Amino acid sequence: MTDIIHLLPDAVANQIAAGEVVQRPASAVKELLENSIDAGADKIQLVIKDAGKALIQIIDNGCGMSVTDARMCFERHATSKVKKAEDLFAIRTMGFRGEAMASIAAISQVEMKTRRHEDEIGSCITIEGAQVTSQEPVATTAGTQIAIKNLFFNTPARRNFLKSNPVEMRHIIDEFTRIALAHPTVFFSLHHDGTEIFNLPKGNLKQRIVHIFGNNYNERLVPVEEETTIINLKGYIGKPAFAKKTRGEQFFFVNNRFIKDPYLNHAVSSAFDDLLPDDSYPLYVLFIEIDPAKIDVNVHPTKTEIKYLDEKSIYAILKSAVKRSIGRYNISPTLDFDQETGFSNMITQKAVEDIVPPSINFNPDFNPFASDSSSTSGYSTSPRNYEAKPSAKNWGSLYEITEQPIVEQTSFYADEPILETKQKQYMQLHNRYIVSQIKSGMMVIDQQMAHERILYERFLVHLDDRKGASQQSLFPQTITLNANDFELAKSLLDDIKSLGFDVREFGKNTLVVEGVPVDLGSSNINETLIFEQLIEGFKNSQQELKLSKRDSLARSLAKNSAIKAGTALGQEEMNTLIDELFACKTPNFSVSGKPIIQTITLAELDKKFEKA
Fold first, then answer.
1. CA angle, residues 464, 466, 470, in degrees to nearest 5
2. What sequence ranges are listed for the domain DNA mismatch repair protein S5 (predicted)?
C-alpha cells in the first residue's frame, strides 16, 4: 500500500489557520489594529464598508516596512517580535505568532502600501488568496496602509455563516473600543459606509472613556489605583447607581492587552457585594501591569485568555483595591454618624435651657369597654389632647364582611369555579399582590408579573401587525447612545416603531423620540429612560436567553413598563388588570416563566391553624 500522509499545500494550510485566527471581520480588524500599535503609530484610521465584508482599511503613521519586510510579513510564522522560545515569556507586544497576515491574505484580496520614515519611496504589494499578484515601488506617506477586500471570497461557506451587517458592525465596534481604551495616547477614528462613528483625540484614560461612552460618564467614574510587588493596578470603576443589566461595559487589560477572565471579574463583583442586586453589573475599566515572565498569553488563538503564576494574590489585591476606592470616594453608605452630614439640615439649633422634654398624661380610671359617652380618653400628649369615645358594641365591626350577592364564573383552572361578587371586589395586599376569594380558599396574584404578561402579549401582537399606537410627546426627547448601542438601535428601528415609538435618527449616535406606545400610559413617562431601558433589556435577553429579536424586544419593553411592586391600585384598576390577565393566552406564568397566580386552599389554612 502506498504512503498516505503528505504535507498540505501552503494555501490550504493558511486557510485552515485562518479559521482559528479570522472568524469574522472583527477578528481581522483586531489583528490589524494591534499591528499598527506594535509599529509605534500614534494616529490610526479605520475605514469599514459593508460591515467589513467589502472593505477593511487601516491607515497608520507607524514605522513602516522595507521592501523585503513587506513581502515577508505575509509568510506563515514570520514575525519581528519573537526570535527564540524564551521570548514567549517576555512579550510586551500585541502580536507575536506571525499568523495573522498570512491568514488574512489566504481568505481575501489584500493591497498594502508601506514606507519607512527614512525612505523616500515605499512599496505596494497585492495578494489574492495567498498568491502575490504584484509588488512595485509607490509614492506613499510614511507608515502603512492595508486594504482588505472581499473577506472570505474564496471560502463561501464561512461567508455564509456571517451575521447581518448590524451584528457584524457591533463586533467591529467592540474590538475597536477595546484597542482604543488600551491606548488613550493614540488618535483613533472609525468610519463606516462614509459615516464617522468615532473620532477619538489623544488624551488620558478618563477622557478616552468619556469620548467613547458619552459625556454623562464623566460623573459615573471612580478612580482605582494600587501598586504592589506583584502587580500595579489602575483604572476606573462605575458608581453602583449606574450599574446595568448587561456586562457590556466591563474591561480588563493585562499589560495593555484586553482579556476575558471570569475569576478576576468575580473579584470586582464581590467588592460590590450588598451594593448591587444580583442581576446588575458595574462598569469597570481596569489595567493590570505585571511582569511578563509571570504570565502566559499563548494559551488561546485570540489571545484573550491568560494564565498567572499567582492568581489568588492578584484576586485579593484586585478586590481590596476596588473596595478601598468604593469607601474612599463615599459611594457606599457609611455607618459612622459622626461623619454623616445628611442629617445636619434637619436639626434645629436651640439653647439647652429652651428645650422642654415631652410629657405624657393619662387617666388611671379609663376603661376601654365602658359605654358611657362621657368617658375621657386614656392618653394625651402635650401640647394637644386627643379624646377617644370607645363603644363596646362597635369594636367587632372592624372584622365584619359585607354581604353581597354571589355569582359563579368559570376559572382558568379546569375544575375550579371562582366565587366572586357582581362588582368583582378584590383586595390589594402590601401594594404587591391582589387577593380574591375562590370556592376552595383564596387566590393571590402578583400584580407586576401579571401586568408584564399582559403587555408582553400585547407587544407581540403589535410586532406582528405593525400597528402599535403612539401617543405624541409634548416635548420630543433627544437621546445620545454610545456607538454600539446606536448601531443596535438602528437595526431595531422598524420593530421599535411597530411597538408604538415615534423615533428617528438625528445626527451622530443620536435619536429623537417624539412619541411612545399608548400602552405605557400617559403619566410621568420619561421617554429617554424608557428607550434606554428597552435597548439594555434587549441586549440582556439576547445575551442570557438567546431569544429571537421579536421576543427580546417585547420582553424588554414589557418588563420595564409594567407597574412595579409597591404601586397602589384602585378597585377599577384591579378589575381591569385581572380581566386582561385572564384574556391572555398564558395567564398562569410570567414572562420569565414564574407563576403569576397562587391558590391557598381552606385545607392549607386550617393546617396553619392546626385544625387539620
1. 130
2. 209-327
